[in-house]
Amino acid sequence: MSRKNRSSNRASRLRGLTPWAALLPMALTVLLGYLGAVLWTLRVSLSSSRTFPKDDFVGLAQYERLFGNERWLLSLENLAVYGLLFIGACMVIGFLLAVFIDQKVRGEGLLRTIFLYPYAMSFVATGLVWQWVLNPTDGIQQAVRQMGFENFTFDWIIDQDMVIYTVVIASVWQASGLVMALLLAGLRGIDEDIWKAARIDGIKPWRVYLSIVLPMLGASFATVFVLLFTAAVKVFDAVAAMTQGGPGTASDVPAKFIMDHLFGRANVALASAGAIVLLLTVLALVAPFFYARSRKARKGKGA
Questions:
Q1: Which of 109, 157, 159, 219 has the fewest CB atoms within 10 Å, counting from its CB?
Q2: Distance from the Cα of residue 11 to its chain's centroid
Q3: Residue 165 burial by CB count (10 A; 0-12/13-18/19+): exposed, middle or buried?
């Protein structure tokens, strides 16, 4: 082989290695930063650590303490209520907004920006805004009473039975725009011939959406569901900004429980156990989702 050919082969190999070299920093970050942190958290959750980590082993004792803790069980109950309402409302409202904008309305670009803008805000800012809006002495209740309806009451944010719903309202207001954007992209990908055929056959639009469009948006809805589910499981900022988990612990959620025990109560092991439970909850949904997608992709290539 000539020197020229060897140089050409060497240059080709270097070009082939360039993408892998570019991915190396991210791969190291994932392995060391994320996977390493998960393994460390798992190890701490199996110890008797308090303020500082201990190098001992107590098995599943922290998990037994965790699920024997009334506050943790209440936080799981709140998370279930929050998650069901948050995901359901975001999907419905986001889909309706997407359908509305898909009608080629005037000012479409402006409307998209308005609906998506709340998602650009941090959950802390959202929580503080809605805390003021729902405050009985300064917000909606006071405004309506000043209009003459002196007996009007809207004090959910200080009502132990209703406070979790105020967090749902704030979160839905922020996240519905993202759902709208994702589903609008899916709607714009549907062949226009389907609508032409439906109009020729005299099929009502609501029937087309129900029987044809929704099934075709299955992949978009699955993506939206995974994103919303993950956001629901790790909700913290909105609760911390709006209610601080109160009144009492009425609006407590698992992430708030973990942060309080990690920094406020100096119980690193119990907080780590809670974090591992949340991680397993997310993996229980996300792992099958990605497995199904990869399997479908392999079948598509095989076909």
A1: 109
A2: 45
A3: middle
pLDDT, averaged across the chain = 86
Query: Minimal CA–CA distance to 255: which of 53, 72, 34, 64?
Result: 72
**Sign of the dihedral defined by the CA atoms of residues 257, 260, 262, 267, in that order:** negative
Q: How many CB atoms lie within 10 A of CB 255?
A: 20
Using CA atoms, how far residue 213 sits from 89, 93, 216, in Å, is 19, 16, 5
Q: What is the pLDDT of residues 95-141, one digit of tens each?
A: 999 999 988 878 888 888 888 888 888 888 888 889 999 988 888 99
Count how many Cα atoms sit within 13 Å of the Cα of residue 159 in the half-sphere of its side chain: 10
- Express the helix, strand and coil content of the chain in percent, nearest 5 each: 75, 0, 25
Residue 182 has which token pair?
């994702």
pLDDT single digits (tens) 40-76 = 999 999 999 888 888 899 989 999 999 999 999 999 9
Domains by residue range for the chain, with CATH: 71-302 (1.10.3720.10)
Q: What is the Cα–Cα distance from 128 to 244, expressed in whole angstroms? A: 11
Query: SS3 for 193?
Result: helix
Angle between helix axes 36-45 and 268-302 (nearest 10 degrees) is: 140
Identify the DSSP state of 234: T
Helices 218-233, 268-302: crossing angle, 10 deg rounding = 170
102 burial via Cβ count (<10 Å: 0-12, 13-18, 19+): middle
Half-sphere exposure of 148 (CA within 13 A, CB side): 0
Q: Give me the count of residues in the chain.
A: 303
